[in-house]
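Example 3.2
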Amino acid sequence: MDVIDTLNYKPTVCIFDYDYLLYAACFAGEKRTIEVVHSPTGRVKEFKTRTEFYGRDKNKTGGWLGKVNRDRLQKGLNPFLLDEFEISDVQTPEPVENVLHTAKLMIQNVLDTLGCDQYFGYTSSRGGDPLFRLTESTLWEYKGNRKDMLSPIHKDALQEYLIKHHNAIMVKDDLEADDWVVIKYLELKERGEKPIIIAIDKDIAGCPVISFNPNKPEDGYTNGDCFGELYINEKNEVKGYGRKWLYYQTISSDAVDNYKANCFSEKKWGHKSAYNALVDCKTDKECFREIMASFKLLYPSPKEIIGWRGDKITIDWLYVANEMWNMARMRRTKKDIVTFSDVLKKHKLLEEKE
């Protein structure tokens, strides 16, 4: 990995993506379980997770429910149906003071580790302008898979605490916290500062910044301001950094943000497919050429689809490539709008004959 030696880079200011800390501290101070009620009998039972109750298989016939039903069948009894049960989420929080203290310690630990005493950060607001990625997503709804996720009970209280006591800035425009940490990093660097971004989001590795992941301090400082590389880690996962990591994200998928290169393609295409397409590329132009080839493989001809808003859309390989690029790329300035078509035109790749 292209990692910055901590002895050679002394950050003067830490820029926190406070959203990771917000959820980590809240989850640490909150117990989550589910309450399951058997409607016909009124019997109630508590489980740690839905998986513990009905298992991991798509038919939801495993876990506790599967075991009970196997026992019932052996006794000649009818199995319970999943529809007979009502499932409710239960959140049991610790006192809010515990959560605030946890957040304070997390911040201080980073500052002590990096030897830096100046810091600020950004936190996202759900009450601001619609996110530009949501507005501009047409195929799959950006972060649409998070709609039913429970919000931590102490989230608002911790957010207010971070704003009052730890220099957090609430993002209220159409950008996200991770966009703003990149924007501010580049502004400070231009002024001669030595900033560093504190974040655990994998997207940050594809931005032109130096970052530190507090969950993986052994990795040191990662430099995304380079061409970079892709590699397979010990868990057989695709990892990377630099521009090459951004290119990989464009032709791969993100289960957290809910976008996928082959979202409307009949062809199978996974993380290893995207890795294999780019791993041997030695220049940006080679990467762009492979990205083009990948999307043309997935979408060999125009087709009509129904977007997530229910409207009919005619798409082709370039349409999907532009949307995936838009979902994956962090803004460098507030008005930094660069499409994948712009990149291809710059490198005169649209003019090349196949």
